[in-house]
## 1
Amino acid sequence: MPIDILMPALSPTMEQGKLSKWLKAEGDTVKAGDIIAEIETDKATMEVEAVDEGILAKILIADGTENVAVNTPIGVIAAEGEDVSAASKPAAAKPAEKPVEPETKAEPAPVASAPPSVPAQAKSYDASSEFPAGAEVATMTVREALRDAMAEEMRRDGDVFVMGEEVAEYQGAYKVTQGLLQEFGAKRVIDTPITEHGFAGIGVGAALTGLKPIVEFMTFNFAMQAIDQIINSAAKTLYMSGGQMGCPIVFRGPNGAAARVGAQHSHDYAAWYSNVPGLKVVMPYSASDAKGLLKSAIRDPNPVIFLENEILYGRTFEVPKSDDFLVPIGKAKIVRPGTDVTIVSFGIGMTYALGAAEALAKEGIEAEVIDLRTIRPMDIETVIASVQKTNRCVAVEEGFPQSGVTAEIGMRIMEAAFDYLDAPVARVTGKDVPMPYAANLEKLALPNIGEVVAAAKAVCYR
Amino acid sequence: MAVAARKTKAPAQSKAAAKTATKTGSAKTGADKGASKALSNMPTFDKAEELHAYREMLLIRRFEEKAGQMYGMGLIGGFCHLYIGQEAVVIGMQMASKDGDQVITGYRDHGHMLACGMESRGVMAELTGRQGGYSRGKGGSMHMFSREKNFYGGHGIVGAQVSLGTGLGFANWYRNDGRVSFAYFGDGAANQGQVYESFNMAQLWKLPVVYVIENNRYAMGTSVSRASAQTDFSRRGLSFGIPGEQVDGMDVRAVRAAAERAIEHARSGQGPYILEMQTYRYRGHSMSDPAKYRSKDEVQRMREEHDPIEQVRGRLTRDFKVSEDELKAIDAKVREIVNDAAEFATHDPEPDVSELWTDITLETARA
């Protein structure tokens, strides 16, 4: 019975990859465990092992094919003399490794599909209004934009260095620091042991002397081990020293839910850090904001919490080609003008906000969408000005509802623009439960476009 | 049992020396040298050094006594942890330091600040929460800093200063500027996890840090033997290959000699070094501690037989024939400084209310 070789996933968030090389040819004999092909994503390269012994009877996806969806059959292993003519039609192939939805495995086209919980990129997003006049524009992923931001700032200032787990030789657990070791060397791109509390403290100590560390956490979930140093040492020392001891440090890494990684790897800490005076908290959505804000964060004389998102790392956006492109910390941006309702969000929450705005437009509701970008200090003025125009607001975040960022937004609007409101401010948040693992439950736990649309209609009384 | 070993001076000395000689691995060279030195002849001070140590330790003692009084008068609020009894540790360390070396410690920090050359007035005014305090009244007893004097605090979270101090060492390594960081912590903090995370990275990267464990035998009210599986703190870096020694922390000469070995090791690029200073605090953990976990006799015996200041005073009169009048003159001068600081700290105004909203974040420079 021929066995399909399926395009494997390298990570919970991988949707597609490149089949870079076949190491075996059709007709070669393979044993279980033999390396038969190499696949790569923008994040990593991996070898594909044969799952059974036999003959590599058929190669279904050629060397160098890009955008091969996970679980697409890429080849067929057959026993000696077995007829594989049937197997050469991928649509008839049966899954060999893991159970998948029938329609997924029957889908032979190398086309990526978005993971179910997070909407695909909104078409209406345009960041170019802030780009320097006349600057050339490149299309790049958030991941590349973050890397470029660090590289440019490290070229500019010898006091800037990056430290964290797997940032150097491994090229970054999520490949955000790719290439930095090669350019800047081991003294400025430092692999640490797995000791978040310790290396966060070392980074803060170095920053107190005036160095400008970028401390990468593999995820902010692990920064819980280090939160004492972040808050008690980094955030408070300037005040406690009467202004003597600044702490120019950036703590960055992926934050919030990725996909199917369960409660301990899915926590969104935006609300936590935004509660602390002395910190700045940044959470970009687009690649240009990621780059411009990270550069601002590195140059900032204060501790900055820079919250990234694993799912957004692979999204592509237009970014101006300029070493001097900075996005100021503390400035929100109207990314879609509208008149009927204000939808305010940040980070990956923007995917729901923008998706909802597109859906609402089809029903004749023009939403004004605001990307907060910085959680602390919060540019509530931009939100208030919008609410004064639309008289309605929906705030969206992936974090938990109680004491969340959207709770803060709602309160601030009530304080400053109560008389302008035609409806109570509504919020759409992650559900008040630890993140479940099961795909269906995870999807329920996160916000979705439908919830944002429903909330927007509710505040519009429609 | 640590108490028993302290009954006479001699056993404590030889214990320290014996430990020094049993160091393993990379500790061997430096520590052995120290051991033979310690065994053959106790490091000595000349008259000027004795006088310096006497004056400096006395300043801390009198300052802390005054702080205790002012706390009792309600002029100092919150927590106030006095350094009385431990003066030889920080003074001996500073006598071996060079300009530019950094100091960081926990919340029992007044002595370290004075030893770093910070002004008595500024420290006392911070204790009273006045505008002339080193943190303009916004830090208090546990949170004071001086960038000018390379004093990095003053930290209220037990053990946090160990990672931070390692970070100071990291900065010295990064800049290759020949500085050494001294990270002070107590026998209590020595049980914190981040201490060992820091030890690991400091030795891995050969950072110039001297870890000074001030073992005063009690972590608040818990004696070392009730909290620590390994009560020989000089061995706490052994599994990382960090050399360590136990030092008679009541003898300023022994402290300076050990400090010289440790600092030389760190400054020469060989990485961190651990000094366990065997010391004793006479007062409670903080002002509100009645110290019921130890006997009055124990405290009394330490004061009578091992007091760091009395030891120097004895040598000054006995070996250097310094007259009582000369010593009284020093004492008077020290009291004058302390009284002046107390006077200043009592009458200096509280910070302006506008200070509530300053120093939260620094202004972002225009790019």
Note: The first strand of chain B starts at residue 102 and ends at 105.
## 2
Amino acid sequence: MKLKLDSLIEWAYVFLVSAFLLYIGMAVTMNYRLIHSFPYGFSASDAFGEIAYTEGIKDLGDYKFLPYYIRYGFSDTLGFHMPMFNHIAAIFSYVSGLPVWDSLLIIGFLFSIFSLLAMYSLIRNFNRNIALIGIALAVFLYERNFSIIYTWGQWDLIMATFFLISAVWVLDKFEIKYSYILFALLASGVALTHISEAIFLLIFTILFFVLKLLRKKLSSSDFKKLIISGILALIFSFYYLLIFKVGYGAGGVDNSIKYQAPERFDVVLSQFGLFQFLIMAGLLVALILLFAGIESTALLFGSFMFFIGYTNFISSFAPRAFQTRYLWPIHLPVLIGALIYFKLKFIIKEWKVVYSIAISLILAVSITLVYYQKTTNSGIINEQHWGALNWISQNTPKDAKLVYFYGDPYNQEAILWNQKRVSYRVNMEDFVNAIKEGKVKREYNVEVAAADDAELLYSKGAFSFGYHYREINKTAYFGQNDICKFDYFVFDKVGSQQALIGYNAVIANDLIKSGIVQPVFDNGVVLILKNNEPGGNCVEERNL
Amino acid sequence: MKKETFDLLKNELLIIGLIFVVTFIAFKIIFLTENFFVVLRTVLAIFWLLVLPGYFIMFYWKEQLKFFERLIIGVAVGTAIIGLTSYYIGLLGLHIKYHTVLLPIGLILVGILSNRKR
């Protein structure tokens, strides 16, 4: 196999860009280490939830059921969350020897690079120079707000995007033998990773073939392949789609027209800075070319994903529209690439690949110098908190029930899923009211820390399902509860709210004074007390 | 397997080997303070799980698709197959720890066998 010099330079540049993106993204976020003793950089509940799902798959060996400790203590609730990303992360954790949390981050970052490479290949099918120029836009992936998907745990979105773009790439090469098998596999991959991208793929596929039909280029072979791939994709995804329908989908879909404004953490076009104007001009160029009859799946897909980012006026779509925008630096390169290339081609008739690389390099360096701010953040949990969670998972009985009092990290509920025990959090409003009343109480308002999505769906038999959430006495899981029924009490000794930390200490001391509660763990940040007589008289109500 | 096919496979695997070495060097530079063996094992895991299985599957299309196309889209196809298969055989009772070896080897074998007579 001979490689032309042009191709060698091209792929060397693409590799260089990929390595650069790995550096400014993954390496910076992970503080230049691949292995950490705690979830470094994790900054939201969802991210910790993904650790729990993946650890659950490793512990149980499969994803048939979710771990009891994140489902109110029920061990028969079905795995309702899309399984693909967590399976791959679990296997990667085994093969690499890395902890689950590092594996999740690495897979997330790697798949954003792979998504970019897939998009590059798609654009390259149309025009190599446009692909090279446009790839520079990907530097925005690691600018604020785009970059929060990595630390907020939106990795399944990234993997689904990779499958989505690859499936579109297969559409672009639909004439190859057995393309319908590849398409079906990738479509199933999307569906089992993040359903919204599967819906986007479905809409785009319909659009793609309708345009082909209008151009009188849709053959009966194409149609037959499409039907077969659809059937195959349904077969491959059937079991999970059934669970999705009765789980997440049980509540129905709200398609009402209702504008949802972006939050402070969402992406808006202006976050591309001056490049927003290039994107809009590039969109105009793309639409003109498409309407003029130019056949380019890349231009069509780039334009399509731009408009998907603006479907935040349809209720069910709004959160997904905002999620799509995080990956606009992957979807939109074709727009700026087409704009710059076609404009300059008027001037430079004899175009060479090195011109595209030079322009791309200038753009990438400019974006980095002007917009990139290196931020390192160890995340919302530290080694001491994580050490406490590990101690709990290794030193307490599996049926132990814990109650958490005040602690800065605990408002991100899924952190507590990782102690692998059923746990509850004291409601902070009730906690603060108790301080205002000047009382130590025996009953506090608590809530179970759990994933109650899909209403704790379980199987009653073939195609028959039940929902534990509809059957349980909810007061046992939410509301005023006697704290003396719990087996362990967890208090933070350090925090941002000194009054709440002080109240923690008062309650802890009162518990110890009862004689039936003893300290079992104290690392200077977290104190854990064991109740030796659950149901006994662990604390006397009193005024402070 | 025909000689031309075998030669092509051999040459492309050499290129993948070169990409592996360059990737490892890039990772070691980027993660300068990380332990050598941690970096090596991570890059090996990436190639074992994400690159090789998909490459062998996509080798079937060697006459219709270019090497880099098959390599990149192969990551997606391989990951999709491994993820789907892992999910279903897990549901059937085979613990996921066995998927780490069985699935990549399985896909590599499928890839080789599908080119047996080509």
Note: Chain B has a mean pLDDT of 95.
